[in-house]
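Contributing: when you submit paired examples, paste them exactly as shown. First protein:
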Amino acid sequence: MLIVRAPATSANLGSGFDVFGVALDRPADVVRVEKAERTTIEVTGVGSRYIPEDPKRNTVGAVAEALSAPARIRIDKGVRPASGLGSSAASAAAAAVALNELYDRGRSREELVPVAAEGEAVVSGAAHADNVAPAILGGFTVVTEEGVTRVDADLSLVACLPDIVVSTRDARSVVPDRVALTDLVETVGHAATLVAGMARSDPDLVGRGMADGVVTPARADLIDGYDEVCAAARDAGATGATISGAGPTILAVCRSGTQRAVAVSMIEAFEERGVEAQAYRTGVGDGATIYR
């Protein structure tokens, strides 16, 4: 048996729609694999009743097929589905790393990113890599058609997950398909600032760089209390806050010593809107880790 832990991730980070992603040090999925004549899947953990175990409808089934690596696969979910924290990507990333090792396929971590992305396509309909890249590689990642660039970063983060469901399909349907030149210039500036901040592990630059006037405002209406929660996070010491992936999780970047206050403030702001929430005090994490 081979065991792999793969982390939750946060995609987009405001200004980097479908490009930026970051691994979180918690929560995470744990996947166990054993060689078998055909692929079978068992899912336990948070939200497991909503996840199909049919290999043709599960991300890890697609990964096993892509690697020609049939296996008995057991997934212990730590990342809630439909959370905006890369739940399906965590499973796909863990399976890709585990099966590559189990069957000695010899692929590099970078080469496993498109394999795991094919698994993502089972859920989202498209092979997006903005979540699977950091889930496999760790750190902060920039995904383009030319490949993945990884940056080490050390930041304190809070991921606040409300008891709200936002479907990826709905979140994508509200994204505008045309952008004014002025908005494009502003977004490029923010994205560049965020990358510089990640390279320096500078929470102030990253917080400023998360600002986005295109995608985030269109999605904010899907999250009850979004503006109030972001304002509460900043009042408590966060340098910036934005939607994590498709939502509903809100990700905040924290200065040193403010993480607990930010987490409490975000939960209280949701509660004032009658929405229950939980907060993960987390940071930039490592990629998929193999345990034998």
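Second protein:
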Amino acid sequence: MIKSERAPIIWALDTGLGKNLAQVAENRTLLDRLAVAFFACVCVAIALYGVIKPDYNWDMVAYVATALEDRYQDPAELHAATWAVISEGARESQLYEIQYGNPYNKHQWENPADFQSQLSMYRVKVGYIWLMRLMEPVVGLANASILLSVIPSLLVGALALYWLARENALQGAFVLAPLLMLADQAQMTTAVVPDMLLSLVSLAAIYAFVRGRDTLACVLLFASVFVRPDNIILIFAMLVTAVVFGWRILPLLATFVASFAACALISRYGGHPGWWAHFYFSCVQIQKSMIGFHPDLSLAAMAKGYARGVVVSLVHSDWPALLALFTAGWALLNRFGRAITSRQNGMLFALAIGALGKFASFPLPDDRFYHVFIIGMAVLLVAIWKPRFDTARIRT
């Protein structure tokens, strides 16, 4: 018996079904539409899951309490009002977890004054808290906090799809969809945190800047520090990039100065404990009370925080691997002559150093803290690459 030396894929394509699929694969319009449909289904499925099964976690409790804080002077009253809101929608298992899941949660559940002392680290997200209060009369605080992750998630997907369409790269949505999942977009959509909203505002700023609309980009970047003040790292990375790539420095310099001043005022009037106290709390040892917590600066403790961040990031997070992958992809696209504009090259540089700078300034390992940088690089690279499945050929 003579064995066929044809590859299995070639044999499959010679069948009737294979020939029909091959014809579909050569139809660019159809593939573009399928890519859009696939990407849209992924984004909608993530959003629906976020609405149906939101993650009632400790951060949600703290943000709801911060939104209620202007109405209650007494910590016990604030504590009771917060848990009344949370208890309305949380499942029994979720309530148990955020009340008794670990010693820290248990202490916050049992000690209203210490619970309120934690809010100084949440109060600085003034734009996020303002939007929660704005939406409260319509949907309630708990649903407002959930929707502020779900709606931005859908809009991030819509903006990414629009971006690919403008770059004539719609088939790249087949590639971008799984990258969104690896970048933790599903978890960020179900979690009640401001990071998805930050990614939306920042991605819009990145797109505006790549398209040459500097004023709009700078306005959006300035607005982003009211969602999360630490997004000033992205602004600083873009300022450095402007110097390196010879762009107009003044708009980004003005944005950085204004954002730095805004962050300083937000921190001062929000009662933020300061960088080192927050670093110690988040990266070295969690504190059950922030009342009077002013630890001495310790190089040993700082080294411990960075070591923990590196190990946990490499073992449990995806952003370091994605950053390495995207940096390699960027190099390959340049190496093989893809048409990359100065704005695109510069923005990829800014996002790469921004991700590293974000970790250097505060070594938290979770993917959600780097989503702004990772998703920005992903969309940029796919838009530059413009993968075309209809023109691909299988070698025989």
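If you have annotations for the second protein, write them as plain sentences, like these:
The chain has 21 helices and no strands.
The first helix runs from residue 8 to 13.
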